Amino acid sequence: MKKENIPLFFATLQAANPEPKTELDYTTPFELLAAVLLSAQATDVGVNKATRKLFPVANTPQAIYDLGVEGLEEYIKTIGLYRSKARHLIETCRMLVELHGGEVPRTRAELEALPGVGRKTANVVLNTAFGEATIAVDTHIFRMGNRTGLAPGKTPLEVELKLEKRVPLQYRLNAHHWLILHGRYVCVARKPRCWECAVHTFCAFKPKTPAPKTT
């Protein structure tokens, strides 16, 4: 993607969705952290289905910690890898209670010290809960960074660092959400829906996927 097209690319995404939001259901920074921890290799729809039962019963670090691993598993067993996720979340809750007064820390280092929290999860929390202009590179953003030529890289970190350099400052806060949603619904993995893509003229991907033939 040519440098001069990048502002147009994001201006178009912004015009279509001025205030993009995560599709995970949450009301507090801790609920967001818990939901993102549960979302690895799972859909937001599946996570929301579980947390709609969990959060009314336990939505603080202390309350979830009091459930214990087996108690938590009962609420999240519909989610993939639920046993390991339950262990991570319980240990995270313990650390939040003992080290942070039950609050979600606001620094990357403290977030990444929590079990199961890597750079991507920390970036989601910093961006979505605390309004920092971080970009969390998931599979959708990694794919789009490479496919469109916006930020090609061999690793998620490489793509993230290129995005930080190439995304104009005025679009940085919401870039994460625009790219994820576009990758989830339009620039999909197997057959990108180029024929209905609003930003296809700025994208380096070739050949563009033609519209399916109608009979």
Quick structural gist:
The chain has 215 residues and is an all-alpha fold.
Helix content: 55-70%
Largest sheet: none
What is the correct CATH architecture of the largest domain?
Orthogonal Bundle
CATH fold descriptor of the largest domain: Endonuclease III, domain 1
Which series of helices and strands comes N to C? HHHHHHHHHH
Terminal CA distance reads 35 Å
CATH classification class of the largest domain: Mainly Alpha
User: Mean of residue pLDDT?
Assistant: 95
Proportion of β residues?
under 5%
At the fourth level of CATH, the homologous superfamily of the largest domain is Hypothetical protein, domain 2
Q: Radius of gyration over alpha carbons?
A: 19 Å
Domains (count)? 2
- Helix run count: 10
Overall morphology: globular
Number of strands: 0
Poorly predicted segments: none
From the helix content, strand content and strand pairing, which structural class follows?
mainly alpha
Structure description:
The protein has 215 residues and is mainly α. The chain has two domains: 3-20 and 135-202, Helix-hairpin-Helix base-excision DNA repair enzymes (C-terminal) (Endonuclease Iii, domain 2, Orthogonal Bundle), CATH 1.10.1670; 29-129, Hypothetical protein, domain 2 (Endonuclease III, domain 1, Orthogonal Bundle), CATH 1.10.340.30. 56% of the residues lie in helices and 0% in strands. The protein is built from ten helices and no strands. It has helices at 6-16, 29-38, 44-54, 61-76, 82-100, 108-112, 119-129, 139-147, 156-166, 169-185. Helix 4 runs antiparallel to helix 5, helix 8 (139-147) crosses helix 9 and helix 8 crosses helix 10. The chain is globular and about 55 Å long. The mean pLDDT is 95.
